[in-house]
UniProtKB/TrEMBL annotation:
Location of the EfeO-type cupredoxin-like domain: 15-115
Organism: Candidatus Kaiserbacteria bacterium RIFCSPHIGHO2_02_FULL_50_50
Pfam families listed in its UniProt record: Cupredoxin_1 (PF13473)
Domain of life: Bacteria
Protein name: EfeO-type cupredoxin-like domain-containing protein
C-alpha cells in the first residue's frame, strides 16, 4: 500500500516536471511589449521603414526618423485585444484597425525636417510620435 502511494506521488512529480519543461515559454521569443530591435531601418529600395510593436500602447512611443525620404510605419500585434489596435493619425487623416495578431503598414509619405507625426488609439489613451529630422 505504501509502495503504491509512493509510486503515485513519484509519477505525479515526474509528470509535473516534464510538463513544466515542455510548456515553459522559450526565452528566445521576443516579447511584443518590448521595442523592436531596430525600429527605424532604411531598406535597399530607399524607403524608410519604421516598426512599432502594439500591445497596451506603442513600443517605441517616440521615434526619430530621417526627413525627406519616403517613409512607412508597420504596426505589429501579437494577441493584442485592447484599444491600441484602433489607430488614428490625425495629420494623415487615417484610421487603421489592427488584427489581434498580424502586421499592417501605413504610408507616411515624405516628411520635412521638424515635422512630427503623432498617432494614438481612438480614445487618445495611448499615443506615439514620429519626429523627422
Ligand atoms: Cu484607447
Amino acid at each position: 500500500m505504501n509502495n503504491t502511494i509512493a509510486l503515485i506521488v513519484t509519477a505525479i512529480i515526474i509528470s509535473g516536471a516534464v510538463a513544466f519543461t515542455v510548456l515553459k515559454p522559450t526565452q528566445t521569443a521576443p516579447l511584443i511589449t518590448q521595442e523592436p530591435e531596430n525600429p527605424v531601418v532604411i531598406r535597399e529600395d530607399g524607403t524608410q521603414q519604421i516598426t512599432i510593436n502594439v500591445k497596451s500602447g506603442y513600443h517605441p512611443r517616440s521615434v526619430t526618423a530621417k526627413a525627406d525620404i519616403p517613409t512607412e510605419v508597420t504596426f505589429v500585434t501579437s494577441n493584442n485585444f485592447d484599444c491600441s489596435n484602433d489607430i488614428l493619425i490625425p495629420a494623415l487623416q487615417t484610421r487603421t484597425q489592427l488584427e489581434p495578431t498580424g502586421t499592417k503598414t501605413v504610408a507616411l509619405g515624405t516628411q520635412e525636417a521638424g515635422r512630427v507625426i503623432s498617432g494614438g488609439c481612438s480614445m487618445n489613451m495611448y499615443n506615439f510620435n514620429i519626429t523627422f529630422e
